[in-house]
Design brief:
The protein has 268 residues and is mainly α. It has two domains: 168 residues, no CATH class; 85 residues, Tetratricopeptide repeat domain (Serine Threonine Protein Phosphatase 5, Tetratricopeptide repeat, Alpha Horseshoe), CATH 1.25.40.10. The chain contains twelve helices and six strands. The two termini are 23 Å apart.
Length: 268
């Protein structure tokens, strides 16, 4: 079984397989990663966290769980420029530094093991967590409570005041959505490191995991352009053109397609 096949098989198990699926994504980038060993480390972390949790009903343990994880040294990675290790779970667990989504995946796995109800929230620009039914979100980077006003402020910092808070920003993330978002994060981080071969693995996984948009195809087209694969580049540009409704983007894609050499029989 290939690492990619293992990712998909773990996802078929639903929420219980998300963390292991994310570890197999690490294997795709580093064949020396042993998911079983990382799971053992998570077991040790679970013991430490569990021993420090207060005696409260499980539906009140979401924030204390995050605070205990933070007390063990897990924090948002503030390296600049950010590297792919901030999204690869084995590296995040070793360094105790990671992107919000990576920290959230670790928290969700510990919550699952400890029977603490907690869900992922697909908030734009900064992944969040929530106790089902609660009137607030939780920041995976330390556990701060975020009420609607806080979410609006976070959204404004990320995208500007012109972007209003909408109900869709606070929807629960499915297992596939979380892994697809993780793959998009890795794709961008690897592009930033000029590692198109690694980014191509992530781009392909994004397309395999579910609903995609024009930007996903355009991102992969850019990699194929740099790797001198015009046939594959054309494929993604044509699919991006089919998916976009933006007239400016349509014009740019049409122009770019017209500048490509005619497709050949070469396989990429």
């Amino acid at each position: 079984m290939t690492p990619r096949q293992a990712v998909l098989e773990c996802l078929d198990r639903g929420p219980s397989g998300v963390f292991e699926a994310a570890l197999w994504i690490s294997v795709e980038h580093d064949a020396t990663v042993q998911p079983a060993q990382v799971m053992e480390i998570m077991g040790d972390i679970q013991v430490k966290v569990s021993a420090s949790l207060p005696m409260l009903p499980v539906n009140e343990l979401g924030q204390p769980l995050l605070r205990q994880i933070n007390a063990l040294g897990f924090q948002q990675d503030d390296d600049f420029p950010l590297q792919a290790r901030a999204a690869l779970l084995d590296k995040v667990i070793r360094r105790r530094r990671g992107q919000p989504l990576a920290l959230a995946l670790i928290t969700l796995e510990l919550a699952r093991r400890l029977n603490i109800p907690l869900i992922g929230v697909n908030f734009p620009g900064h992944f969040l967590l929530r106790i089902p039914g609660a009137d607030h979100q939780l920041d995976p980077c330390g556990g701060r409570r975020l009420y609607p006003a806080d979410c609006r402020e976070l959204l404004s910092r990320q995208f500007g005041v012109q972007m209003p808070l909408a109900a869709e920003h606070l929807r629960e993330a499915s297992p596939r959505q979380m892994l697809q978002r993780l793959s998009r994060n890795l794709r961008q981080l690897n592009i930033g490191q000029n590692d198109d071969v690694a980014a191509l693995k992530d781009a392909e996984r994004v397309l395999q995991l579910g609903h995609v948009n024009a930007s996903d195809h355009m991102a992969r087209a850019g990699m194929y352009q740099r790797l001198d694969c015009p046939g594959a580049e054309r494929f993604d540009l044509e699919h991006a053109l089919l998916l976009t409704e933006d007239p400016i983007q349509q014009l740019l894609l049409t122009t770019r397609l017209s500048q490509l050499l005619p497709a050949t029989s070469k396989v990429h």
